[in-house]
Amino acid sequence: MKQPLVRDKHFYVLLTLFIACTVFYYFGELVTLFGWEALRWEIFYTVHDLHRMIFLAPILYSSYYYRLRGALLANVISLLIFLPRAFLVSPYPDATLRMVAFVILAIAISMLTALTFNERDKRNKLTEALRQSEEKTKRISAEWQTTFDSITDLVSIQDKNFNLVRVNKAYADTFQKKPEELAGRYCYEVVHKTSCPIDNCPHERALKIKTSTLSEIFEPSLGVYLEVSCSPIYNEHGEISGTIHIAKNINERKQAEEALQKSEEKHRLLSEYTWDWIYWLDNDYHFVYSSPSCERITGYTAEEFVNDFSLLQRIIHPDDLALFIKHRNSSHESPDHGETEFRIICRDGSVRWLGHHCGPIITGDGRNLGRRTGNRDITERKQMEQKLEEMATHDFLTGLPNRVLLTDRFTMAAALARRNKARLAIMSLDLDKFKTINDTLGHDAGDQVLKTVSARLTAIIRASDTLARVGGDEFVLVMLETKRREDATAIGQKFLDSFAEPLTIDGKQLVLSTSIGVALYPDDAEDMETLIKKSDAAMYYSKGHGRNMFKFFSDGDVRLGGDHKSGA
After folding, report:
1. How far apart are CA 215 and CA 166, in angstroms?
2. What confidence tens digit (pLDDT) does each residue in 506-561 have?
3. Domains and CATH numbers, the chain
4. Contact 371, 331 (CB under 8 A)
5. pTM > 0.85
C-alpha cells in the first residue's frame, strides 16, 4: 500500500525534479534578467525544444509510483509551470501548437504508463492472494489432518452407500491398513466382516431419523465394546450426503460397570438378606440407604426412615437418647469406628435392645460421605445377661437377693449411715421346724413354703430395705435409717404377725412361725460379718426360748456361739 504523498520519499524526489525542470525551462528568462544574453542564446539553441521534454521525467516518475492519480497531478503541475511562458513569452507563433502536441503526448504517455503498471499491480496482487490462499488451504488441511489423526477414537466419514470416504489413523491402525487402502470400501466389510449392514446399524439409523445417534455395540471381530456416535453430514444444498462416525473403545468402562454391578449386587444381597439392620447416614444425618431388616426389627419400613430422617431419633428410648446423641456426634467427627448399645421403642410399643456399630465412609480421594451403621437385635442377649446377673446376685428359688448382693447393699447402706450418722438394723430370720415340712411333705412343698414366705416378707419391708435368702430357711434383712430400736421392733413384729395366717400348700394348710434376732449398726458392730453373727446369736436365743419371737443382741443376755438346735 502506497504511503500518503507528503510522507513518501518519492514526494521529495518529484519535488526536486519539478524544481530542476522549472529552473531549466525558465533558464532563458533568467539569463536575460541577469544580462547573460550571449550565454542564453548559446545554451538555448543548443538544447532547442528539449526543454519541454524535461517535464516527462517527473510525469513518468509520478505515473510509476502513484499510477493514475500521480500522472494526472504531475501533468497539471507541468502545465501550470510552462503554459505562462508558452503563451506569453515565446516569440514563435507555432509554440502553442507544439505545446498542445506535447501536452497530448505527455498525457498519453503518462496514462499508458500508469495503466500498464496498475494492471501489473492487480495481477501481482491477485497472484499473491492466490498463493497465500493456497498456502493457507494447505496449512489448514494439514492441521485438520493432524487433528483428525491425533484423535484416539476410531473416526470415519461415510457416504450414503456405506462407502468409507475418509478414516483417521487410529481407525486404519485398528484394521492394520493404510487410510488410502480403506477409502471406497464398505464399512460393514471392514468393521463387521459381513456382506451387508448389521441389525440396528448406526449409519442407517442416522440416515433414517436425520439426527445424531449414540449406541453401544459389541464387536466380535475386535472383541471389544464400542460406543458409536453417528451424525449426518449435509451438503451445500441441505441434503444428507453421508455420516461421520466416532467409535470409542469402552471395554474398560464396561468392565468397571460390570465389576460395580457385581459389587452392588453382592452388597445388596448382604444388606437385604442379613439379619442385621444396616443403614448409611450422610454428613447431615439424613438416610441415604436403609436395609429391609429395619422393618423386622423396628416395625418401620426403609422408605419411612429415608423420607423422615428424624424417625430414628424419635424411636430411641428416652433414657438412652442422650447417650445415643453423644455417641453419634463424637463418632461423626472421628475417623474411627464406634460401638454402643441402646433401646428402641418399636411400632407395636415393644422395647428392643440394639447393638450399634458404625464407621466412616471415605472415598478414594479422601472425601467423607457420612457413616455406615450396623444394628443388631440383642434383646435376647440382654435378657439372658439380666438373668445371669440375677442368678449371680439373687436366689434362684425365691428371687430374693443372695449373700453377694446383700454384702453390696450393706456396704452402700453403711456408707450412707456413716455419712448421715444414722443406724442400720440387721435382722436374721429362721423358720421354725421347717425341716419337718421337708421330711413329711417333700422338698417341693418346702420350696413352695419358701416362695410364699418370701413374698409375704417382701410385702412388709420398705423399697429401700434389702431382704436376702442366705441359707435353706434363713433370711437376713438390712434396714436403712433405723433411728430407734422401736423401728426395728415394729418390722420384727410385722414379720411375726405375717405368720399368723396359715399357708396353703398342695391343698393343705400349714401354720408356721419364725424366730428373729436383731443387731444394730454401729452399736453392735460396724462390719456385716460381725453384725450377722450377732443377729444370728440373737435369733438362736429366740429359738431356744420358745420360738415365734425376736430378740436384740444388745439386750445383754445373748452370747455369741450360742447353741443352734438342729431342725428347730
Report:
1. 21
2. 888 888 999 999 999 999 999 999 999 999 999 999 998 989 998 999 887 887 76
3. 5-123 (no CATH), 151-249 (3.30.450.20), 277-383 (3.30.450.20), 394-555 (3.30.70.270)
4. yes
5. no
